[in-house]
User: Which sequence fits this backbone?
């Protein structure tokens, strides 16, 4: 959720009103204590407070920063002011870790203010319950310390809840998963904090090393383990996506599934799939901020821009910020993009396409994610090739090779499907127009079969123009054509058939005399006889509808003199 400038300014002025004054008040009334000595112990605490936020532990998608086990020691031994300073120091690497963008500058005063309020209020509660700074026995220390920890967690959660619910307008719950993990982790780390607290009185700065170094080492090990778990999770997702892609046999579905799953899997705001066509990269899919956009971007050529360079080299690239790719980019790139991941889609050792992903966050992508996208692109390359091959094969099996109309096989399947719709009430009518060209054998005999084919091709184009989306035109065989019209009643079908007849009869067809050496162009007039039948009035099954339309064609039109429309009469 992007905040308005007004709300960002409110956060800034609130910070200015609270934090500087609060720091002064804390220093005056709760000044640092027990600072005698060389200060090495306090320096080690500051170093740990700065370093630990860089090593978070992720559990079930929740990021946990174990910073309070260090700041609590600073509070118990040196007082409230030192604890506040330690928390403010810890915020610096924390904000670096979460990668604050320039337009999210308000998060700096927001986090600083939250840390201050949590430290100050929980510290006051500790003192109100009788807690003191310095060496104390465990029996007198434990009750106020537990209260301090619980209140710190509660205050932090309440502030965050208020900000998200009422300021950022997010739908969040108070007792969220993050709150539960935060509470549990702080309670688990409390014994470690108390152990470090007591050891500092005996060992000084060495105590921080004695406990801190193993803790940091454990954090690094857990981070590495979490990274490997994350990679395994991504690999598992990649496998699942690969299966989904290869199961689909339609190009559009493959493209949609691929782009959808990529956006679900990675932090992607902008996604583009480009096809290597001749010497240009042609846009196939364009999704920006979750919205599908038109493919109206100017094509790039090989070695042009980021995508063109990846096409040329065949190597993936990963950029973490605009400064890394700005000198390479050419053409369109959304404003505010920082991170870019661009991967070639390879099939049979040849680059067939390009996938470009982008985010407005710096360092949005990690190297292992580049490997995952490479794997997904391999799946995608195979899936899109299979889908295209399937669609080509399917088209060839369903279409007439000469006219590109649907053939007899497809028409029969479609007719059966439409009759099923009619039977269950999804259609009211189903009309069939069947036409046959008159004396077409004369055309073939006089001008050759190639010339006859030219007429059939032109007739197919005319029929498609006339019918449009009202129905389906198919070549039934030879010079015979059928037009299937769902939800068209008989009278309307007859009127449409008459329009088809007059369009054929009144407009000459262009052909070339293939039997003449000159192959001269001729204008030839032809006519057609047409029969019409409509279900459920004329037929209650597919065969009856075809038979009755055919009977109307031959008995009602051909035998009555040709070049006319006849409807089935019982």
Assistant:
């Amino acid at each position: 959720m992007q905040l308005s400038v007004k709300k960002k300014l409110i956060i800034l002025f609130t910070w200015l009103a609270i934090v500087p004054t609060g720091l002064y008040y804390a220093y005056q009334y709760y000044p640092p204590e027990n600072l005698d000595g060389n200060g090495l112990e306090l320096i080690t605490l500051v170093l740990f407070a700065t370093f630990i936020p860089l090593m978070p532990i992720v559990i079930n998608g929740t990021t946990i920063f174990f910073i309070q086990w260090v700041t609590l020691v600073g509070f118990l031994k040196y007082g409230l002011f030192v604890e506040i300073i330690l928390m403010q120091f810890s915020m610096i690497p924390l904000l670096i870790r979460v990668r604050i963008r320039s337009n999210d500058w308000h998060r700096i005063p927001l986090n600083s203010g939250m840390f201050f309020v949590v430290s100050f209020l929980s510290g006051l509660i500790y003192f109100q319950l009788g807690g003191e700074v310095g060496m104390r026995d465990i029996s007198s220390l434990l009750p106020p310390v537990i209260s301090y920890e619980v209140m710190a967690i509660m205050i932090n959660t309440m502030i965050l809840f208020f900000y998200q619910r009422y300021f950022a307008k997010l739908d969040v719950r108070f007792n969220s998963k993050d709150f539960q993990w935060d509470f549990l982790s702080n309670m688990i780390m409390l014994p470690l904090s108390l152990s470090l607290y007591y050891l500092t009185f005996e060992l000084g700065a060495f105590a921080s090393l004695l406990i801190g170094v193993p803790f940091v080492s454990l954090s690094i090990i857990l981070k590495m383990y979490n990274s490997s778990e994350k990679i395994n999770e991504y690999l598992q997702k990649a496998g699942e996506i690969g299966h989904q892609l290869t199961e689909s046999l339609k190009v559009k579905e493959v493209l949609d599934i691929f782009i959808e799953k990529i956006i679900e899997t990675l932090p992607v705001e902008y996604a583009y799939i480009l096809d290597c066509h001749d010497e240009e990269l042609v846009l196939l899919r364009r999704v920006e901020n979750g919205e599908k956009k038109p493919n109206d971007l100017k094509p790039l050529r090989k070695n042009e821009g980021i995508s063109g360079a990846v096409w040329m080299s065949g190597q993936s690239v990963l950029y973490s910020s605009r400064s890394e790719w700005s000198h390479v980019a050419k053409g369109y790139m959304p404003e505010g993009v920082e991170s870019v991941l661009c991967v070639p889609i390879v099939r049979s050792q040849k680059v067939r396409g390009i996938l470009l992903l982008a985010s407005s966050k710096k360092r949005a992508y990690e190297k292992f994610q580049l490997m995952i996208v490479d794997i997904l692109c391999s799946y995608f390359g195979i899936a899109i090739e299979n889908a295209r091959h399937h669609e080509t094969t399917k088209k060839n099996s369903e279409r007439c090779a000469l006219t590109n109309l649907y053939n007899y096989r497809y028409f029969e399947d479609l007719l059966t499907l439409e009759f099923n719709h009619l039977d269950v009430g999804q259609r009211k009518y189903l009309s069939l127009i069947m036409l046959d060209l008159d004396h077409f054998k004369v055309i073939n005999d006089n001008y050759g079969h190639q010339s006859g084919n030219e007429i059939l091709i032109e007739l197919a184009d005319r029929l498609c123009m006339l019918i449009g989306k009202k129905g389906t035109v198919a070549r039934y065989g030879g010079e015979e054509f059928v037009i299937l019209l769902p939800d068209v009643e008989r009278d309307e079908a007859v009127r449409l058939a008459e329009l088809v007849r007059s369009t054929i009869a009144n407009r000459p067809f262009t052909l070339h005399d293939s039997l003449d050496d000159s192959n001269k162009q001729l204008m030839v007039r032809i006519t057609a006889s047409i029969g019409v039948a409509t279900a459920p009035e004329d037929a209650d099954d597919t065969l009856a509808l075809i038979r009755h339309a055919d009977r109307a064609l031959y008995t009602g039109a051909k035998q009555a003199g040709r070049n006319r429309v006849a409807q089935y009469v019982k």
Notes: The domain at 5-221 is CATH 1.10.1760 (Arp2/3 complex 21 kDa subunit ARPC3).
